[in-house]
Design brief:
Blueprint: H1 8-72, H2 76-183
Helix pairs in contact: 1-2
């Protein structure tokens, strides 16, 4: 079994395939980052919706109590009792909502900082890889140009030599034919 020889065209094709695969891998990585960022945004929107759903009942309860206070015009004692009851019911919900909001804010800040550093790192790596690919492609093209000149020189020199040998052989044969014809 004979091992196939690697010529310049095969090597260039291999470099082009490797470069294409590297670019494709980078595209998949960027797509994965995009998808994870969309999921994070969805989670944040869900948390905001949960916070909104926990605050709206408090606001509606407050409106309802105020409306009933105005409509019924109960005495001051009844109004104070209602207000104290409202404060007793609303206070834990407000504290919980404020705590949830503070926790969400801390989480958002941490995620934003982490995403920003990740994106900065990825952009820097993409820049570095692009420079490397450019350097590799330039080197391959320069090598291909030198190889083409070398192949042209290697092929044309023996062809000129063979052509010269054939011309000499033809001249010798012609000269021998001419001398035989002359001697007859």
């Amino acid at each position: 079994m004979q091992i196939p020889r690697l010529d310049n065209q095969t090597i260039l094709l291999a470099f082009a395939v490797v470069t294409g695969l590297a670019m494709l891998l980078q595209a998949f990585i960027l797509l994965a980052i995009f998808v994870s960022m969309r999921k994070a945004v969805g989670a944040i929107q869900k948390e905001i919706g949960d916070l909104r759903s926990s605050l709206l009942p408090v606001i509606y309860d407050t409106r309802e109590i105020l409306a009933s206070s105005r409509d019924t015009l109960l005495g001051a004692q009844e109004f104070v009792d209602n207000a104290q009851g409202l404060l007793a019911r609303v206070s834990p919900k407000v504290e919980a909502a404020v705590g949830d909001l503070a926790e969400i804010t801390r989480g958002l800040r941490a995620q934003t900082t982490q995403m920003q550093s990740s994106v900065t790192e990825i952009v820097e790596k993409v820049r570095t890889q692009s420079g490397r690919v450019d350097h590799m492609v330039t080197g391959v093209l320069d090598t291909a140009d030198r190889a083409g000149g070398f192949v042209t020189d290697v092929v044309s020199r023996p062809m000129r030599q063979i052509s010269s040998i054939l011309a000499v052989a033809k001249a010798v044969i012609e000269s021998l034919r001419g001398s035989r014809a002359h001697s007859r």
